[in-house]
From TrEMBL:
Keywords: Oxidoreductase
Domain of life: Eukaryota
GO molecular function: malate dehydrogenase activity; oxidoreductase activity, acting on the CH-OH group of donors, NAD or NADP as acceptor
InterPro entries per the UniProt record, alphabetical: Lactate/malate_DH_C, Lactate_DH/Glyco_Ohase_4_C, Malate_DH_AS, Malate_DH_type2
Name used for this protein in its record: Lactate/malate dehydrogenase C-terminal domain-containing protein
Residue stretches making up the Lactate/malate dehydrogenase C-terminal domain: 35-104
Keyword Membrane assigned: no
UniProt-listed GO biological process terms: malate metabolic process
Residue stretches in coiled coil: none
Length: 104
């Protein structure tokens, strides 16, 4: 029950879900897709831009798979409990630089 599962094969989100559903006796929190790396990258980029620590970023989601087609969802993410766009006013950076950095 303490096993940690990381899925690296695309479509990694889908494959992680399939794996999770086929192991009903294991806690869902033990399953991760490779996009977790992308989530961490996105959190770090937002934290650096906002001048806060990484642990102040919440609700960060990566839509899609670990590739350049993924979409880091800054619209639903929060910094210190506040929507990202209230803290980081640079919309161009969010829509372009941030997204491209996380994707690549």
């Amino acid at each position: 029950r303490n096993v940690k599962v990381i899925v690296v094969g695309n479509p990694c989100n889908t494959n992680a879900l399939i794996c999770l559903k086929n192991a009903p006796n294991l806690p869902a929190k033990n399953f991760h897709a490779l996009t977790r790396l992308d989530e961490n990258r996105a959190k770090c980029q937002l934290a650096l831009k906002a001048g806060v620590f990484y642990d102040k970023i919440s609700n960060m989601t990566i839509w899609g798979n670990h590739s350049t087609t993924q979409v880091p969802d800054f619209l639903n993410a929060k910094i210190n409990g506040r929507p990202v766009k209230e803290v980081i006013k640079d919309t161009k950076w969010l829509e372009e630089d941030f997204t491209i950095t996380v994707q690549k």
